[in-house]
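A quick aside before the break. I want you to see a complete sequence-to-structure record at least once, exactly as it would be stored in a machine-readable document. Don't worry about memorizing anything.
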Amino acid sequence: MSPSPVANGGRGGRGGRRSHRAAEGKLYGGDPLPPSRMSAPPPPTTFISDLRPSRVATLEATVVQLEAAREITTRDGAKQKVRNGRLKDGTGEIALVLWGAEVDQVAQGDRIRIVEGWVKEYQGRPQISLGRRGKIEKLPATG
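That is the input. The structure line, written in C-alpha cells, reads:
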C-alpha cells in the first residue's frame, strides 16, 4: 500500500517534499498553520547605548520626559503635530520625536517598545522616531 498523496505533499509515492500548501501557510493536509507559526519573531531589542544614526532599531525603554505637543508647518506647507520627549533604559537616554497621531500614543512614565524605529542625528545628538514603518507598543509596567 503506498502512502496517501495528501500525506506526502500530493505527489504520490515516497514523500518528504513540501507541497505548495506549506508555502501558503497550510499543513500538508490543507489545515492552516496556527498564527504563532506563521508570524515572524519580533526583531531583536537594542540597548540605547548601542544605537547609531542612520539605522533602524527596536528598543524597549521608559518615557522619562514628554513635552507638550505643538503644531508645525512642514516643508510642503501642511500642518502637523509634533512632540519631543526622552527615553531611558538601563544603558542611557535618547531623544524621542513623535509625529501626527503618534503624539497621543504615549504618556510620561509609560514603558514602550519601538519596533523598527529610525535613529538619526539631529544637532549632534541621536534621536529616534517611528520613521516610515516603525510602531509603538505599550509594555506592562515593571515592579
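Two observations worth writing down. The CA atoms of residues 84 and 97 lie 5 Å apart. The radius of gyration is 23 Å. We'll return to this after the break.
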